[in-house]
Write a structure and sequence with these properties.
The structure holds 2 protein chains of 2 kinds. Chain A is mainly alpha-helical. Chain A is about 80% helix and about 0% strand. In chain A, strands 1-4 form a two-stranded antiparallel ribbon. Chain A has a two-stranded antiparallel sheet with strand order 2-3. In chain A, α3 packs across α12 and α5 packs antiparallel against α6. The two termini of chain A are about 40 Å apart. Chain B has one domain: ABC transporter involved in vitamin B12 uptake, BtuC (Orthogonal Bundle). Classes of the chains: A mainly alpha, B mainly alpha.
């Protein structure tokens, strides 16, 4: 009996944010039982899947002690360029595959530039990616002249609308990437190297891990994930614009932190982030479901981010001395 | 031997760029722009640039405080939007027959600065309590930006507010040389505080090493709180002057101000890692950006393409700082 109490106590102490969310979901279920309808769950899972792929990459970056603020711009660029290529190259399977690959190469190229700036010039990742994000946004605006780019490709439409066993195709893509990310981070040398790099960079370097390569490859992974998220988003919206998904980078950070991966690096897991992003989207959708619209919704998103990061930072405040 | 000479030359170039680069940049930009459009050098154009960038200047001076103390404040833009819409509400409500009374102008000024101080105080309190570093300052103040921006939206329901006054003291705040004067006064006071007071010296100490500052017995939390409070006050003041200068207020008024302020601070040679920097250089940085952006406008570069320039300038300024630091480290090692 006593041990049970202490287990609960430890859980409350360690995961206050998680607890708050679980409380919220239960509250939602009581207030609006229709919130847990099949369609609603399916729709929430689609949003979770699109941002989730990027959130996995952001988690890996945070574990490694890096960060990417250009993710949102890269995501938007991915949508725009994918739509552009789909329109330019036609609807044959080969052309669509080529469009996807070329788009992914372009978003990964942004990652390469980020990685080179951070690793070679040693500019803090925050500043470097803030700057490249601004540059890429400007470039996307010049490229599209500020307009939205749309596509009427039937295969893309089918990918966004189709379901298998009640779940969208996009959700299965996300599940695939979750498995891949978990496998890489847990069972490969590369993944363990990333944990070591984030935990203590000097110690990792002394034990023979190529720290520079680890840090560099993180940014390429982030670029890849932004491209995949962008392609998934195009499947859903059949359009791309600089205005879509500007909150991506910070939502991914929030999902990571809510899941329980601290911003200090070296700890955490991608599976926790899956829980984190699920909870965040249940909250966002729940608020919309309650009829809270527009700026109040934005305000609550901001407050969520503020609270979550503050609590996380408060818990780890001693580690920063 | 040769490599030593080489590195000495490289060091000279870098330190020369840091000492004189800003003034050099202003001269070159002015020259190029004047050759293409002689009107660039006219007194009227110069005053226009100074006036337009005085509010960014005031915000940048506040940002410099946050950055020198080892933090950052991304909520500056929203704070300016919030003070802008509230200032306009006060002035429009007090306006009688298109004249804004002097008392309302002073009230708006006071309320604006207090509002800014309030946002800054929340930022400072959270960051002091959680002992946040750059990563935390970044995300926490970014979240504040979202929240404060949404509050501004909620207050005016997203509507654009036009000025209902035609004359009065409030209009004077943004006319002629007054905004520049505001900036100069703020700069002088802030530079004085930074260099001559115990708080100012503590701020440098804190920014270069929080651990050392704590061990030396500094009131770390208090200093951090004050730095962010001052940053917020500057943003509030900037918000009031923007409204007076532009003659309208919207929730987008402060958009991108935090980025511009950060660019100006970085260009001014303040290390974004904290612990160094000066207000005078920040003001010079503002001038460089002001001259450059105006020159780009004259050359017909669109605002979207200007984003590319802004981002590139941040990378270059920070790269120069990092290069300079690594050289100093190497020098110490030798």
């Amino acid at each position: 009996m006593r041990s049970k109490v202490s287990v609960i106590k430890r859980f409350v102490n360690k995961q206050p944010v998680l607890l708050l969310f679980i409380f919220f979901i239960l509250l939602m279920v009581v207030i609006k039982p229709t919130f847990v309808s099949i369609t609603n769950i399916k729709n929430i899972l689609i949003d979770v899947s699109i941002y989730g792929v990027s959130a996995l990459a952001m988690t890996i970056a945070i574990i490694t002690g890096a960060f990417d603020l250009s993710l949102a711009s890269n995501f938007a660029w991915g949508q725009i360029f994918f739509c552009f290529l789909l329109n330019a190259w036609g609807e044959s399977p080969g052309a669509m595959l080529a469009a996807l690959l070329v788009m992914l190469l372009s978003t990964m190229a942004v990652g390469v530039i980020n990685g080179l700036i951070v690793v070679v010039t040693k500019i803090p990742a925050f500043i470097a990616t803030l700057a490249t994000g601004i540059i890429l946004k400007g470039f996307s605006l010049v490229f599209t002249k500020g307009n939205m780019v749309s596509t009427s490709n039937p295969f893309i439409k089918q990918m966004g609308r189709g379901t298998f066993l009640g779940l969208s195709y996009l959700t299965y893509i996300f599940i695939g990437f979750v498995a891949l990310a978990y496998f890489v981070m847990t069972y490969t040398r590369f993944g363990r190297g990333l944990y070591a790099t984030g935990g203590n960079m000097k110690a990792a370097e002394l034990s023979g891990i190529n720290v520079k390569l680890s840090r560099f490859s993180i940014f390429v992974i982030l670029g890849f994930a932004a491209g995949i998220s962008g392609a998934m988003f195009v499947c859903l919206m059949r359009a791309g614009s600089v205005l879509y998904g500007t909150d991506l980078a910070l939502t991914c950070v929030a999902a990571t932190v809510v899941g329980g991966t601290p911003l200090t690096g070296g700890k955490g897991s991608v599976l926790r982030t899956v829980v984190g992003i699920l909870l965040i989207y249940v909250l966002y959708k729940g608020l919309a479901f309650l009829g809270l619209q527009g700026y109040y919704n934005t305000m609550i998103r901001g407050i969520v981010l503020l609270t979550v990061v503050s609590i996380d930072a408060f818990m780890t405040r001693g580690e920063r001395w | 031997m040769e490599s030593k000479e080489n590195s000495a030359r490289k060091k000279k170039i870098v330190s020369f760029l840091r000492e004189w680069g800003l003034i050099f940049a202003i001269v070159i930009i002015t020259l190029v722009a004047t050759i293409i459009r002689p009107a660039f050098l006219s007194g009227k154009n110069m005053l226009n640039i100074l006036r337009a960038y005085s509010t960014i200047g005031i915000a940048s001076i506040g940002m410099a405080y946050a950055v020198i103390g080892g933090g950052m404040d991304l909520s500056v833009g929203s704070t300016i939007s919030l003070t802008a819409v509230i200032t306009m509400l006060i002035i429009n409500n007090a306006t009688v027959a298109t004249v804004a009374p002097a008392s309302a102008a002073l009230l708006a000024l006071l309320v604006g600065i207090l509002l800014g101080a309030l946002v800054g105080a929340v930022n400072g309190a959270i960051l002091a309590v959680v002992n946040g570093r750059m990563a935390e300052s970044f995300i926490i103040t970014y979240a504040m930006q979202i929240v404060v921006g949404a509050i501004a939206q909620a207050i005016v329901k997203g509507n654009f507010q036009a000025a209902q006054y035609r004359s009065g003291l409030f209009k004077q705040f943004g006319m002629g040389f007054t905004p520049v004067l505001f900036m100069i006064v703020v700069a002088v006071v802030m530079q004085f505080i930074l260099v001559k007071t115990k708080f100012g010296r503590s701020l440098y100490f804190l920014g270069s090493s929080m651990k050392a500052a704590k061990m030396a017995g500094l009131k770390v939390k208090q200093v951090r709180f004050l730095a962010h409070l001052i940053c917020g006050m500057c943003a509030g003041l900037a918000g009031v002057i923007v409204v007076s200068r532009v003659g309208s207020a919207s929730v987008l008024q402060g958009q991108n101000y935090e980025l511009d302020a950060l660019v100006c601070v970085a260009i001014g040679g303040t290390s974004l890692d904290g612990g160094s920097g000066s207000i005078l250089r920040t003001v010079l940085g503002v001038m460089v950006i002001g001259f450059m952006m105006t020159a780009l406008n004259i050359l017909g570069v669109q605002s979207n393409a200007q984003l590319i320039v802004r981002g590139t300038v941040i990378v270059l300024a920070v790269a120069l700082d990092v290069l300079n630091k690594s050289m100093k480290l190497r020098e110490v090692a030798q």
